[in-house]
Specification:
single chain; about 270 residues; alpha/beta; TIM Barrel; 7 helices
């Protein structure tokens, strides 16, 4: 074998296997397109999605939205992306009950070691500019803490909960509330935080461990400076082009609406 061939074998052998954490986007990732995001049917179908005999995902995302009804001056915590249809939305605890049931299974994730529960705290209570008041923040954060407890209290699987929000202030307030009221009782649960490179609301005293960005924005993102990084995709962006982008930038986390497609690509690439 020539010196050049030996060097190539050595270099290829040193390249780490790319094995990102794959998370189900908006609790709806079975790839069929038959369900709505943030719906109980979609979440149930997603949790049942397998690849080669085990869960195709490493975790799921649950969106939480605090809906403010100005006519009644009341706020309600929903398993929802926004206030589009608050009368039919389930509660975060409803979604958590499905996750809790899933966490009783012999294998709960593709990695077979740990489950990832990503919980997004939407920063507004109506529209895009109506942010939480102080009492609404407390209500929303407590809703999320209760949801995490429902989902994880009885499992013996290690669970990493990733608190996600475009507002760094919501992250800070979550940790303040968690310190005052430590309602998460399972010792196998760890908490991490994720948020965009440029948040919609910046709090100087809190920085998430994981930075997130939309896959199409990869050229404008200094990826090496923000690792660990999480790329998110939706159905309109999931194609051969975007998986090539993911192969190039190699984010540690991938959030997708079509887990079987992405899982199959990752395993084929390996």
């Amino acid at each position: 074998m020539s010196l050049r061939s030996s060097l190539l074998v050595f270099l290829v052998g040193c390249v780490p296997v790319y094995d990102p954490i794959v998370i189900c986007h908006n609790g709806n990732c079975d790839g069929s397109g038959a369900y709505l995001d943030d719906s109980m049917d979609g979440l149930a179908a997603s949790l049942a999605t397998t690849y080669r005999g085990k869960p195709a995902f490493d975790g799921v995302e649950i969106d939480t939205f605090l809906f403010y009804d100005a006519s009644l001056d009341t706020s309600t915590c929903l398993f929802a992306h926004d206030a589009l249809d608050p009368t039919t939305a389930a509660t975060p605890n409803d979604a958590a009950a499905l996750v809790a049931e899933h966490l009783t299974k012999p294998i709960v994730s593709w990695n077979e070691e740990r489950f990832y529960l990503k919980v997004e705290i939407k920063p507004t209570v109506a529209g895009t500019g109506d942010f939480h008041l102080a009492d609404q923040t407390i209500q929303h954060v407590q809703c999320v803490l209760d949801m995490i407890e429902v989902a994880t209290k009885d499992t013996t699987w290690p669970v990493t909960v990733i608190i996600d929000s475009t507002s760094e202030c919501m992250h800070r307030d979550f940790e303040r509330q968690r310190a005052k009221f430590p309602t998460i009782t399972n010792p196998f649960v760890t908490i991490e935080h994720s948020g965009p490179v440029v948040p919609v609301r910046n709090c100087l005293d809190f920085k998430p461990e994981i930075r997130t960005f939309f896959v199409r924005d990869w050229r404008d993102t200094e990826i090496e400076a923000i690792r660990p990084a999480m790329v998110w995709m939706d159905r309109r962006s999931e194609n051969t082009e975007t998986v090539k982008i993911i192969r190039h930038i190699r984010p540690e986390y991938v959030t997708t609406s079509t887990v079987p497609y992405v899982r199959g690509w990752i395993e084929g690439y390996r």
